[in-house]
């Protein structure tokens, strides 16, 4: 058996459906030794969890998942996980804050474009659908469905707000070098999330040259047969290995918390790497 950890999960602060309290409850029921809440572009879930735990176990690592633009016309996105960053680091906080503002502005300009196209939705409606989270395209899609202009959110993406659609608004993202540098400046480690999704693995060499620290070997959407290949690449490039469920909701669309059985010994490598990074600052 041995003890396990889960270093990748989302809450209502981004696109998850569970509260932070529910997530902590699941982590405790699974007897996990450590966990990281890795919401997209925000540390809000981390702060809430750290207050709730109030120094009690299990160990909570400060984490966040950043979207990175690999160029090629903005069609290709990869995700970089930041671990053990200083949650009070000014540069990191202001970058996350500006992304949040930018997302809200983007939401507004999509709503404007849609209204010019005769689709009557309001920004308030979109905000209500977003709840705690920063406004993002799935919320705009839900509003389009509510207004009766698409049967499903998929259709809303296809007809209106997907890439190349009449109400599409591009989003500014980090370049990989910006993201990795910022994570290091904030004293944390940069890990390539779910490398087998969207062929993110194709960028591995580039990212390693830019200072990438690790890869997420264990992930709900990756097959066990991918594990050997990824472990081999980690060894070849001297990368640390991490893993997590990428939990979003309890309906099983993504993995459940603890489902990846990530061994706790991986934490040692991560802590060691973080100490090296801080020593180089
Ligand atoms: Zn991701
Ligand atoms: Zn994720």
Topology, pairings included?
Layout: E1 4-6, H1 20-29, E2 34-37, H2 44-53, E3 59-69, E4 77-83, H3 90-116, H4 123-130, H5 137-146, H6 153-161, H7 176-185, E5 189-192, H8 204-209, E6 214-219, H9 224-236, E7 240-244, E8 262-263, H10 266-280
Helix pairs in contact: 4-5, 5-6
Bound molecules: zinc ion (2 copies).
One zinc ion binds at residues 65, 79, 193-194.
Summarize this entry quickly:
This protein is an alpha/beta fold and 281 residues long.
- Contiguous uncertain segments of 5+ residues: none
Shape: globular
Helix/strand class: alpha/beta
Fraction of helical residues:
40-55%
Overall CATH architecture of the largest domain: Alpha-Beta Barrel
- Quickly count the helices: 10
How much is the average pLDDT?
93
Q: How would you name the CATH homologous superfamily of the largest domain?
A: Metal-dependent hydrolases
Strand percent estimate: 5-15%
Specify the CATH class of the largest domain: Alpha Beta
The termini sit apart by 38 Å
CATH names the topology of the largest domain as TIM Barrel
Strand order of the largest sheet: 7-6-5-4-3-2-1-8
Order of helices and strands: EHEHEEHHHHHEHEHEEH
- As a whole number of angstroms, the C-alpha radius of gyration is 19 Å
Structural domains: how many: 2
For the biggest sheet, the summary is: 8 strands, mixed
Present as ligands are: zinc ion
